[in-house]
Write a structure and sequence with these properties.
This protein is about 70% helix and about 10% strand. It is built from 18 helices and eleven strands. Helix 1 runs antiparallel to helix 10, helix 4 packs antiparallel against helix 5 and helix 6 packs antiparallel against helix 7. The longest helix is centred in the middle third of the chain and has 93 residues.
Length: about 675
């Protein structure tokens, strides 16, 4: 025992340590994993935001240069000079080169396919620009085509800027960057309208599509820039208000208002429709464009810097949370190691006490209650403190008390039910015996065959009623009450069992050996055979015969009862055979929903005398064969298997013990003495 405890103690402690350490180690692993993931994600996001910040300046220069190149290209196609176009193109190419170098890491670090696709498309704008420039220089493209082509290139920048907001670290940063995108689109509407205004000032009539686009852009940038001013910071809002209230802005607005009115009137534009000269217009456009581009670049840079700060704070927060979780996990491990020994000992004590209670004390108390005795001090409560372990012990105490009370109530209920059943059965049995006595007397004084046949039928019904009463007595654990003073021949046992069935005329006996049944066991054997024969006649088709045959075997005598009914399924037959071997308790019989109480009685009587009853399928007729193995202890005297003629004989018509005017059941009862029957 000492070696066993020494061996088991570390096992219990290891289990407790596992309960505490597995979550702790899991917490540490999760903390490290989450911390590493958040740190790496924050580092990637920081690198990504740095790329966005680095791209702000070259993007602003590229956008401003593309706007200027569009204006100059459209002016050239409208008949204006080419001065400044080559320098502007060179500036755009330099800005695009710088931008491509910056957005390379942005494409690499981003997990979004949308960002990678948009940024990749942005780096390919150089080829499209070269084709467009060649068309402008050669005059192969017109003003609307040039206007739309440059608009597509600049719109690609806007789409890239909007897609880049997907990589923002949080919602405020994304909103901040979207404000930059809105500012870009407002500026683009302004630049498009100024390009179309300059074409008109050069004497070109705007096509309907461009005139409509001008009207749309002219109204759009006013509302867009006004709404953006509401969400900008104080310094940026002041810068935008200064721009929109300056002289250059008023000159642009005055000129575009005049153009809008002329386009609304329709027809060709008149000469000198513009209130300002072309040089004044270009100077104002240059000043407004630079200021607006500066405002966009400043806000984009500030938004990128704020996002970078947010990402850095998240990275620091991730490492801080990871360190806290790691320290908490280590603290839990230390506490678990210190407390596991004490908890393990208390659990072992609770386990040992519970095993003693469930293994010996509680069964002993239940057994005493079943025998009508009080358990006394057999049951003692478990005491293991007032904490959770003590509460578990108290729960075991409550379960123990409930089990004892339930066992006591069950014992009282079973005893009461059994007494009621036995009382009713004894009374019914007494009434049946009185009926049989009266029927015997009536049969002795009746000679009319019709009346005699009716009395015989009543005699069989009374005999069956007596057998059903004996069933209740047997299920209650008592003897049915009939006794024989000498061994009973097997053929008489078969006839007596047949006489207790209502359809006795269907039974045919074949090959019944000339052996006898011990007097103290004859009543139970008769009862077993009567129940089986009664089942066979009940489940067989009307008018069919039930064959009863016997044969000597090595372990005793086998009696087979074969019917010609529909039989039963293999599962049902297996269940019934198991029920015949495993003797049911009285309470199980009383609470069972199975109405075939006869098989319960057969199982109880068979187990009492070591008789084995088995059901199998009839290979000849498809019905059921009940095989009853009577052991040698049930038989009396050396076996002398003398069979009747092979043709067989109906049991009730056999002349072996048949007497004129007396039923076979009445004759068989003459040698039996009832005992223990309660008279009413």
């Amino acid at each position: 025992m000492v070696r066993l405890l020494v061996h088991r103690r570390p096992t219990i402690r290891r289990q407790l340590l596992a309960i505490a350490l597995v979550p702790s180690i899991t917490l540490i692993a999760v903390a490290l994993t989450v911390t590493g993931y958040l740190a790496v994600d924050a580092r990637n996001s920081s690198s990504l935001q740095q790329s966005v910040s680095d791209a702000s300046s070259p993007a602003a220069r590229a956008i401003l240069g593309l706007q200027e190149e569009r204006r100059l290209s459209m002016a050239l196609l409208a008949g204006g000079p080419q001065a400044g176009l080559d320098a502007t193109r060179q500036q755009v190419d330099t800005s695009l080169t710088d931008l491509a170098a910056v957005i390379g890491p942005l494409i690499t670090n981003s997990d979004s396919t949308g960002v990678q696709r948009q940024m990749g498309a942005l780096t390919q704008q150089g080829d499209q620009l070269n084709q467009l420039r060649a068309g402008v220089d050669s005059g192969r493209v017109d003003i609307p085509t040039t206007y739309l082509a440059y608009g597509q290139v600049i719109t690609a920048f806007g789409a890239s800027l909007r897609t880049a907001t997907q990589e923002a670290p949080n919602a405020p940063s994304a909103y901040d960057q979207l404000t930059s995108v809105d500012l870009f689109y407002g500026a683009e509407s302004l630049w498009r309208s100024t390009s179309l205004t300059e074409v008109a000032m050069l004497g070109e009539n705007l096509p309907d599509t461009l005139a409509a686009d001008f009207q749309q852009r002219y109204g759009a940038y006013h509302s867009q820039l006004a709404s953006i001013g509401e969400v900008l910071g104080d310094s940026e809002r002041a810068q935008l208000q200064t721009l929109m209230s300056g002289a250059n802005w008023l000159l642009l607005d005055q000129t575009q208002t005049a153009l809008s009115r002329q386009l609304a009137d329709g027809g060709k534009l008149p000469k000198n429709w513009s209130p300002v000269t072309l040089d004044q217009w270009r100077a104002a456009v240059a000043q407004v464009g630079e200021q607006l581009a500066s405002l966009y670049g400043q806000h984009a840079q500030n938004a990128a810097d704020r996002s970078a700060t947010t990402v850095h704070d998240e990275e620091v927060r991730a490492w801080t949370v990871g360190a806290i979780l790691l320290m908490a996990g280590l603290l839990v491990v230390l506490v678990a190691v210190q407390m596991s020994g004490r908890v393990a000992q208390r659990l072992r004590n609770l386990r040992d006490d519970t095993r003693r209670m469930a293994g010996s004390k509680l069964p002993e108390a239940v057994e005493l209650l079943r025998h009508g005795k009080e358990p006394g001090s057999t049951i003692s409560p478990l005491r293991h403190g007032d904490d959770e372990i003590g509460e578990v012990a108290q729960a075991f105490n409550e379960a123990q008390d409930m089990a004892v009370r339930a066992a006591a109530e069950e014992a009282k209920s079973r005893a009461g039910t059994r007494d009621v059943f036995l009382n009713i059965a004894r009374r019914t049995q007494g009434i049946a015996y009185q009926q049989l006595k009266l029927l015997d007397q009536a049969q002795e004084h009746v000679e009319d065959p019709v009346h005699l046949k009716l009395l015989f039928q009543l005699d069989h019904l009374a005999t069956r009623a007596r057998r059903h009463a004996e069933n209740l007595v047997i299920l209650g654990g008592k003897q049915p009450g009939r006794r024989w003073s000498r061994p009973v021949p097997l053929i008489d046992v078969v006839r007596g069992a047949t006489g207790e069935t209502i359809n006795y005329e269907q039974v045919v006996a074949r090959r019944i050996p000339d052996v006898s049944i011990a007097s103290d066991r004859a009543a139970d054997v008769i009862h077993i055979l009567a129940e089986l024969i009664d089942n066979a006649t009940s489940f067989g088709p009307p008018g069919s015969t039930v064959e009863v045959s016997g044969e000597m075997v090595g372990k005793g005598m086998v009696v087979e009862i074969e019917d010609r009914g529909l039989g039963m399924s293999a599962d049902q037959r297996e269940q019934l055979n198991r029920q015949l071997i495993e003797v049911p308790d009285f309470g199980d019989v009383a609470l069972s929903s199975d109405t075939r109480l006869g098989l319960f009685v057969v199982g109880r009587l068979a187990s009492r005398h070591d008789i084995r009853v088995t059901l199998r399928e009839s290979l000849s007729y498809g019905g059921t064969v009940a095989v009853v193995l009577l052991p040698t202890a049930v038989l009396v005297g050396p076996p002398n298997p003398i069979s009747p003629p092979t043709g067989g004989f109906p049991v009730m018509n056999s002349g072996a013990i048949q007497m004129p005017g007396v039923s076979q059941a009445q004759l068989f009862r003459a040698s039996a003495t009832p005992s223990g029957v309660q008279e009413t």
